[in-house]
Amino acid sequence: MSMQPLSLSPASFLQLMWLASPALPIGGFSYSEGLEAGVNAALVGNEAEAADWIAEQLQLSQARGDMAVLAQAMQAWQRDDRARVVALNAWVLQTRESSELRLQAEQMGRSLVAWLQNRHADDAQALALVNWLATQDASYPLAFALAAHLAGAGPRDALLAYAFGWAENMVQAAIKSVPLGQSAGQRILARLAQAIPGAADHALALGDDQRQAFSPMLAILSARHEHQYSRLFRS
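The line above is the sequence of Urease accessory protein UreF; the predicted structure tokens follow.
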């Protein structure tokens, strides 16, 4: 059987794997994005419910919002359209529906920018872009877009990496909070891996007037989580 060539160079492919890794020191492991509040409210209590929850969040929240922003931000970075980057970043921050969700976008953005400053310390041109973004209170999707752009990736490949990294963090949150076993987590991740390419294509097709951040029940649960008595996660 013949092997299909990579669409990315090996260096770019490895950079995307690095960016998607839960080991990247940006704090993604500390957030459940409302899942822990869903468990506390008895909305998620087993493998099937956790799988449905995360899969629906992929389609309703990520694909329609942050992933669409990421794709558009990568196109802006390719054109060096910084006004567009600023506008997209403002949209992300203004559409966070709870203080916890905004905290996550800001904290992970700052942490990824700091990682990029270290990663590109010897590349003056790349570092100039990273340092400029550091002055913009960059949210995580915008920081990831620059990271993927500097890695030489295209928008679709970046979306696949971003979404899989998000999925891994969410599955780990489910394993800890429901709780679930590792085999259950792998089954959920397999389901998400099948859905991610379609979610990426949907995100790529959205324009500014179609992008949205409207998940009212998730917002309510996130707000409740801020006052939840016992918590493992920051959201």
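Note on the example: The chain has ten helices and no strands. The chain has one domain: 34-222.
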